[in-house]
Amino acid sequence: MSRPAQPELKKFMDRRLFIHIQGGRQVSGILRGFDMFLNLVVDQAYEELGAGQRKPAGMVVIRGNSVTSMELLDSMRQ
After folding, report:
1. Which residues does residue 54 pair with via DSSP β-bridges, in sequence order?
2. Which SS3 state, helix, strand or coil, does residue 8 take?
3. Strand partners, 76
4. How far apart are CA 71 and CA 78, in angstroms?
5. SMART domains annotated for this entry (predicted)?
6. Which of 52, 48, 50 has its CA nearest to residue 28?
7. For residues 63 and 58, what is the distance between their CA atoms, to the nearest angstrom?
8. Would you give per-residue pLDDT tens digits along the chain (78 residues)?
9. Residues 35-56, buried b or exposed e (16+ Cβ, 10 A)?
10. How far is CA 31 from the centre of its chain?
11. What is the pTM of this model?
């Protein structure tokens, strides 16, 4: 049985991301690490509250199975 392909997250290391999480929550911050389960370590994280409001959260770990999508906020380097 073959393993499903995993997203290539190495190119997003040390880059600012916007992460959508189940339950309608949103977090932005710098990706500092991940594992084979796609659990994410995000530094300088903010919980995005909407209407331009955000709450600092420091360094957080986000379980991979709760992430619904991610967006890169920095421009891609060549």
Report:
1. 48
2. coil
3. none
4. 18
5. Sm
6. 48
7. 16
8. 555 566 688 989 999 999 999 999 999 999 999 999 999 999 999 999 988 899 999 999 999 999 999 999 987 654
9. eeebebbbeebbbbeeeeeeee
10. 6
11. 0.83
Q: Write out pLDDT tens, residues 1-16.
A: 555 566 688 989 999 9
CB neighbour class for 62 (10 Å; exposed up to 12, middle 13-18, buried from 19): buried
First-to-final CA distance of the chain = 36
- Which phi-psi region, left, alpha or beta, contains residue 37 (left: φ > 0; alpha: ψ -120 to 50)? alpha
Q: Which amino acid does the sequence have at 78? A: Q
User: Position 36: which residue type?
Assistant: M
User: Do 56 and 46 contact (CB within 8 A), yes or no?
Assistant: yes
Beta strands in 1-78 (DSSP E): 16-21, 25-34, 40-50, 53-62, 67-72
